Amino acid sequence: MYGLLPPSVNESPLPKRVESSIVVNARPERVFPLLENPYSLPNWITYLRQVEWARGSGLGSLDGCHLRIAGIKFHATARVHAFEKNVQIGRTNVEGMKMRSEFHLVPDGSRTIVTWAVSYEPPLGQLGFLLDAMMFHRVIRKGVAASLHELKRVAEAGHGRFWTPSRGHAGATIGERDPTVHGYADVRGNRSRSDHPGRMEVSFRA
User: Fold this and answer.
1) Which domains does the chain have, with CATH numbers?
2) pTM above 0.90?
C-alpha cells in the first residue's frame, strides 16, 4: 500500500532540517510497526512524552501528542502524509509546532537502514530562531540520533508492548479519539497501566 497526500495550500518548506541514519539488525517488517503505530512512538522517541489519542490508520491518519524539546513543552496534532508499508512513513503537524517527520527504510539483507529526517520551524518567532542557533537545533539533532539508537534497541529485542484504546471502552474503537484513554509505552520502562479498563496490551514478535 502506497500513498502520498498533496501538501496543503498553506504548507511551505520548513527552514530547519535534521537527518540521521542507523542500521538495525532486524528486517523492515519488524521495524515498521514501531514507526506506524503512534502508541509505540514514546518507546523510543526521547522527546515524545505521550501519545494522547490516535484516529485512523495509514495515509491521512491523525494523532495527538505531547513533546518536550529543550525544556519547552508542546502539544501537537500530526497527520500521516506519506505511507508505504515497510518502506516509508511521514507525519506533518497540523496543529502545534510546525514540524515534518519522515522515515525511510531500506532492506540490507537481514538488516534495515533507517533514515529519519525532521524538518521544523523554531517556535516563539524571531526569538525562536535565536534560541535555535544557540541550542534548539543541537537538542533536536541529538534527540534524533538518540531516538534512533533506542529504535534499534527495541527493534532488535524482537518484542515489546504498547497500549492502545480497546474496543468497547467509552464507546471508543481502536483508533478513535477517546479523551479518557491515553497511550503509554513500556518497552523502555515508561508509564504503563495494565489495570485500566480502556487499554489492551499489543505485543509483536519477529
Assistant:
1) 2-205 (3.30.530.20)
2) no
